[in-house]
Amino acid sequence: MARTNLGLLLKAIDYLEERCLSRLYFEGNIHSYTYAEEGASLYDVLSLFNGKPSAVHDPVIKRMRDLAELEEYISMTGEIELALMVEIVKKYGNGIPGILRSLKDKHVGDQEKERAEYIFSTVHRAKGMEYDEVHLAEDFMTEERLMAITGKGKELEPAVQARLREEINLLYVAVTRARHRLYIPENLLPQGVEPSSAVRTLRLWKEKRGRAEESLPAREERREGSFFKGTPPRKRAAPVKKGASRSHGNFTDQALVDLYLQGKSVQEIAKGLGSPRDVVLQRMQTLGMF
Question: Which segments in the chain show pLDDT lower than 70?
């Protein structure tokens, strides 16, 4: 069970590779799991990886020159699903179409759901359901990351508090889908809680491939300070390039910068400005923010 479509897809590929599954079932439409919530497709990232920008449909990814620039954008915005897409593409490359075909071939219909070796679902699709065992993906918010965001004495805006409550609630819903046994990634197990017969830990995806996982605080610090290297994160206004206009569409540059300095993600900035995400991204690039 995963928080996001791409987190679930990564888990399914991992289990297909590791456990030689022959029958599996996806709650909902299996084809939807190659798409992020914002509409980007795994095939968009694969096309960028292969140097075929004309085959990219997502307006944000289409603006990227290459995969490295997309990774820089991800480090800036912290977009989890795009990061997962890049992980999948870098690991499996042009083997992805074959892997997805294999998943679809092994996917059983609704009438054979009970015969599936594993059932894959996002939290949203699993609400109201229960399973004998639940294996969690790694795309939920960890206690370490939660503490890094909240910190001691930090005053959080209502919108941030609401988002954190939603993240905690998603993890709660996922955990409580298990009737008898829960398998949880090591970094999601709360401090002071020991594994037991009912709660067992899973090795992290990156660790299983011999790669040291970057600590979440370090990743957050890099993301927060990535625009202005060598300066405190979100303390300076964006450097405006010579000749850049101070307004764009239905918002001003100052409004964009103010939202950025409040720690908003690109999606939140776009929502706050009432403009499409790709338009906001283009303006941020023009202003030298990315």
Answer: 152-153, 205-249, 261-263, 285, 287-290
The backbone torsions φ and ψ at residue 135, rounded to the nearest 5 degrees and listed phi first, read -110, 120
Helix, strand, coil percentages for the chain (3-state, nearest 5)? 55, 10, 35
166 contacts: CB under 8 Å, gap ≥ 6: none
pLDDT for position 217: 36
Domain ranges of the chain: 5-208, 227-286
**pLDDT value for 224:** 38
pLDDT for 245: 46
Distance CA 53, CA 61 (A): 9
Task: Identify the sign of the CA torsion 218, 221, 223, 229.
Answer: negative
Residue 289 pLDDT: 65
d(Cα 105, Cα 128) in Å, to the nearest integer?
28
Closest CA to 121 of 249, 275, 15, 12: 12
Residue 210 region by backbone torsions, left for phi larger than 0, else alpha for psi between -120 and 50, else beta: left
pLDDT at residue number 103? 93
| pLDDT score, position 290 | 56
DSSP result, 189-258 = SPTTPPP-SSEEEE--HHHHTT-PPPPHHHHHHHHHHSSSTTS-TT-SPPPPPTT--SEETTEEHHHHHH
With H, G, I as helix, E, B as strand and everything else as coil, classify residue 153: coil
The total number of residues written for the chain in this structure:
290
Return left, alpha or beta for 157; rule: phi > 0 is left, psi -120 to 50 is alpha, else beta: beta
